[in-house]
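Example (one chain per record):
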Amino acid sequence: MEMFQRPFQPVLDEYLDGTISATQLRQRSQYDRRWGFPWEYYAPILEYAQTHRIPVLALNTPTEVTQRVARKGLAALMESDLAWIPPLADIHTDHEAYRQFLRPIYDDFHQEHGSSQGFENFVAAQVLWDETMAETIAAFWLGNPTSQVVVLAGQGHIMYGYGIPSRVDRRITADLEQRLILLNPDPSRLAEPAIADFLWLAPD
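Predicted structure:
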């Protein structure tokens, strides 16, 4: 789950073991400050995982790390940040199609008043986010190769396979089948066959 950040895996495990309550999980994972979307979106999923003894992975990079990279680039990473991210050699920012995908997002956010270095930092932060999640997913699957892994993440991290999926593939040489499902994608993108394998359109 992208909704939880790596340092809070032990807290998530305590909840799944039944040691702490959902309220304590929410508080101790700093969920509201670090994610912010309504807790009710995800509470039933967590309850189901707890009931059925399904492991849940805290995928995300700590907010302060991605914010630091978004402001000043990968060179601004602190020694303490390195515990929560992949090795710097594994953070690949040169995927040209992904860069083109991210460009209008950056321009829209900055009302086209951003800078070339600002864009590079934005790409680095996004890729760091993707690589961190992909590393966690790949490490789990390699240790549990008969498992089916379901990843809950924002659409921007999976569309076209650019973000998480391509980086999971890079880490796993075995035959791994990934399927991308988008929930309620932008209607303007519905005709794009490469955007995902499946589109899930919830009723209004």
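Caption: The first strand starts at residue 181 and ends at 183.
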